[in-house]
Design goal:
Layout lengths: L13 H17 L9 E5 L5 E5 L2 E5 L4 E7 L3 H8 L2 E8 L4 E12 L3 H8 L3 H4 L24 H5 L5 E15 L6 E6 L4 E5 L2
Antiparallel strand pairs: 1-2, 1-5, 3-4, 4-7, 5-6, 6-7, 7-8, 8-9
The chain binds flavin mononucleotide.
Amino acid sequence: MPDPRETPAFANDLDEMLAHAWRQLARGVKDRHSPFHCPSVATIGLDGRPRLRTVVLRGVEPSAARLRFHTDRRAFKVAEIAVDPRVALHAYDPAGKLQVRIEGRARVHATDAVAEDAWTGSRMASRACYATTPSPGEVIPAPDAFTLPQSDAEILAGRPHFTAVIVEIDTIETLWLAHSGHRRARFDLATGEGAWLVP
Ligand SMILES: Cc1cc2nc3c(=O)[nH]c(=O)nc-3n(C[C@H](O)[C@H](O)[C@H](O)COP(=O)(O)O)c2cc1C
């Protein structure tokens, strides 16, 4: 554990701050205990309201300014992204005192190589959600009036519902809390420019 009294390099260096944010996101993909494992994702609802939900962060590609999560093709968020691809993500790590906010555009991959690779890389337990019937979000007459797959064959039959969502990241904003002075920075990934902001 780093000494909390020491000032880390990212506190006074924009490049280091961005690299720190990417490292935390990458850790979130691998470490299910990391707060970055389950960020909140916001879409614009079909009625114009903001809509938020938790997802599991499945991949990050700093060099391409992308991240990936998986969802069900039948989910409301997929219909919302089809109408307006603008999304935002948020996560906060209380131990590292780091908030990361991301804005980007989402693209849904259902049948191409991106989707196929993501499906192949998923564990059976993760694949099982895509074989639930009826569709996620449908009103049901009783709390348990839905069915889960009972066999591997039934799980695999859920493949048409599986989608990988790639978010092309436009901006990353970081807020790091410290007694010596908070640090807030915003990075435009298209231009590569970063700036410190008043926290
Ligand atoms: C810890 C946790 C992880 C979740 N991971 C995912 C996920 O990776 N993908 C997903 O579509 N939903 C995930 N969910 C469920 C969503 O939060 C949400 O309830 C569901 O996707 C329906 O959202 P929608 O109706 O806005 O599409 C997760 C929920 C929790 C609590």
